[in-house]
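PROTEIN DESIGN WORKSHEET
SECTION A - STRUCTURE
LENGTH: 147
TOKENS:
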């Protein structure tokens, strides 16, 4: 059985790093560096306006020769953010990430941002699940052989 997003958030917490749409790309990069993360949510109050990740920086800033000091994060963010709820399973999250080719999924609970699930969290959950299965099978085999 796959873990739920709620279970993962209970462990890792609900902290998300947000920037304002009027912040510059440089501000967003500074926030990512400070918190050692690869994405920031663009928010205005409670409202989720977009997401800006390292990939956006690589593809939309560097490649186009833009200046991160003079470019607003709202000009380059991805609007229409795909979100999940705490009741999603990590298996579903893995499918959504794989199909859409992104590595971050904000969690929204009753209209409020409740955390973020990253590809790293998915990998961790998959490994934990496989370990549990291996342990179950090992004790099953051990029990079987003992009888
Ligand atoms: P990532 O792999 O998360 O760095 O993102 C790859 C691309 O997808 C970037 O252009 C992001 O802005 C965008 N992106 C990331 N997460 C989401 C999401 N949850 N919903 C919509 N777009 C996203």
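SECTION B - SEQUENCE
RESIDUE ASSIGNMENT:
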């Amino acid at each position: 059985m796959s873990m739920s997003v709620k279970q993962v958030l209970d462990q890792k917490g609900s902290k998300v790093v947000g920037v304002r749409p009027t912040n510059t790309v440089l501000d967003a990069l500074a926030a990512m560096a400070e918190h050692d993360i690869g994405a920031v949510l663009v928010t205005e109050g409670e409202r989720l306006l977009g997401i800006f990740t390292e990939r956006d920086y690589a593809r939309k800033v560097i490649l186009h020769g833009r200046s991160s000091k003079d470019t607003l994060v709202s000009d380059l963010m991805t609007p229409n953010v795909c979100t999940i709820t705490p009741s999603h399973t990590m298996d579903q999250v893995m499918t959504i990430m794989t199909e859409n080719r992104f590595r971050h999924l904000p969690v929204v609970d009753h209209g409020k941002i409740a955390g973020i699930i990253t590809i790293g969290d998915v990998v961790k959950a998959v490994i934990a699940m496989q370990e549990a299965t291996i342990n179950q099978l090992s004790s099953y085999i051990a029990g079987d052989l003992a009888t």
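SECTION C - NOTES
The pocket of adenosine monophosphate is lined by residues 39, 51, 53-56, 78, 81-82, 102-105 (CB under 6 Å).
Residues 119-146 form the longest helix (28 residues).
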